[in-house]
Amino acid sequence: MRQAGRYLPEYRAMRERFDFLDLCKNPNAAAEVTLQPIDRLGVDAAILFADILLIVEPLGVGLEFARGEGPVIHRPVRAEDAVARLKPIDVESAVPFVFETVRIVRRALQDRVPLIGFAGAPFTVASYLVEGGPSRDYLHTKRLMYEEPAAWRRLMEILADALARYLNGQIEAGAQAVQLFDSWVGVLSPDDYRAFVLPHTHAVIRALTPGVPVIHFGTGTAALLPAMREAGGDVIGLDWRVDLDTAWATVGHDVAVQGNLDPAALLAPLAVMREKAKAILARAGGRPGHIFNLGHGVLPQTPAFHVKALVDLVHELSSR
Ligand code: CP3
C-alpha cells in the first residue's frame, strides 16, 4: 500500500524541493523517498515511490498533478477517435527513471527487506484517462464501455500491453514482488467487471515474469472478489469494508490475502487502533498467507508515530 507520503515530515521536506512529477522522475530523490518509511517505521517491505499514472504521460494526454487535487488529464480520452490518436507507449524510453529508481533502492536496501514494484490495473488507469481525474460515478468511463465497446477494448488492450511491459521492466530492474492497484474498480457490477475488465487484468498478470509474487488489490470489491481472484494474483488485497475471514473464505484459502485495517483507524487513539489491529489478526487466525496491511493508503493527517506503533504491535503479536 502507499506508505510514503505527506504524513511523513521528511517527505514533505522533499516536496518543498521537488514538484511531484519531478520527484518521481529523479531516481536518487525517488529512492530516498522509497526508503524513508523503512528507516522510520520498520515495515517488512519497501514500496517503490512512483505513481500509477507515470506510464500514461507518453500517450500525450497532458498529465499534471495539481496541488491538492490529485492527478489531472488535460485531454481526456472519451471516444473512438481519441483512442485512435493515442501515441504508442515505448516503455523503456518512457519511464527509464522508474527502472533506475528500482536499481538504486535495491542497492541501498542490501536485502534488508524486499522491494515491491507496482502499476495501476488497466481499469483504474483507463478511468483516469477517460474521466480526466477522479470521479464519483465514472459515467464517462461507463458510457465508453457501453456505447463504444470496441474503443473501450482497444484502450484496455493498449494499457494492458504497456502495463505488463512496465511491470516486467521493474522486475528486471530488481522488484521482488509487484502490486496491481485497481483502486476504483469497485464502481462496477460483477457482470461488467467480467465483461469489460477481467480479460484485460488477466492478460497483464499472465504476461508477467513467472516466479514473482503478484498482489492484486482493489477497493469496494466485496462483490467482485471471486472475479478478481479469477483474473489472477498470488495475493488478493482487501480493503476495510469486508471482514477478512469472510473475504478470505470467498477468494479461497489457497490464495494469500493482504489487509485490511481501515486507514482511518490510524487517526484514532492508540488504544482503539490497537484493538482494531488485533481484531484483524484474530480474523486471520494465524493462518499462513496473511500479509497485515492497511485496507488502503496512509492518510495525510496520520501521526507518523501511530504508524510506527502499529508496525510494532503487529510484529509483537504475529511473532507469538
Ligand atoms: O509508499 C509509496 O512510496 C507509494 C507511492 C505511490 C504513490 N502513488 C505516490 C503518490 C503509490 C503506490 C501510488 C499509486 C497510486 N496513484 C494509486 C493506487 C493506490 C491507491 O492509493 O489507490 C492511485 C489511485 C494513484 C493516483 C494518484 N496519485 C492520486 C489519486 C493522487 C492524489 C492523492 C492524494 O493523496 O492527494 C496521487 C498523487 C500521489 N501519488 C501522492 C503520492 C505520495 C501525493 C502527492 C503529493 O502531493 O505529494
Structural overview:
The chain is an alpha/beta fold. The chain has one domain (9-237): TIM Barrel, CATH 3.20.20.210. 50% of the residues lie in helices and 13% in strands. It is built from 15 helices and nine strands. The protein has helices at residues 9-17, 20-25, 27-41, 80-85, 91-94, 96-109, 122-131, 139-147, 149-173, 190-196, 198-206, 225-231, 244-251, 270-284, 304-318, and strands spanning 46-47, 63-66, 70-73, 115-120, 177-182, 214-218, 235-237, 256-261, 290-294. The strands form two sheets. It has a seven-stranded parallel beta sheet with strand order 1-4-5-6-7-8-9. The two termini are 25 Å apart. Coproporphyrinogen III binds next to strand 3. The site of coproporphyrinogen III has 21 residues, from strand 3.
> What order do the SSEs take from the amino end to the carboxyl end, as H and E?
HHHEEEHHHEHHHEHHEHEHEHEH
What binds here, in terms of ligands, is: coproporphyrinogen III
Structural class by secondary-structure content: alpha/beta
CATH topology: TIM Barrel
The tally of strands reads 9
The CATH architecture assignment turns out to be Alpha-Beta Barrel
> On the 0-100 scale, what is the average pLDDT?
97
End-to-end Cα distance: 25 Å
Strand order, sheet with most strands: 1-4-5-6-7-8-9
The biggest sheet, with number of strands, parallel, antiparallel or mixed sense and barrel status, is: 7 strands, parallel
Helix content: 40-55%
Strand proportion: 5-15%
In brief:
The protein has 320 residues and is α/β, with parallel strands linked by helices. It has 15 helices and 9 strands.
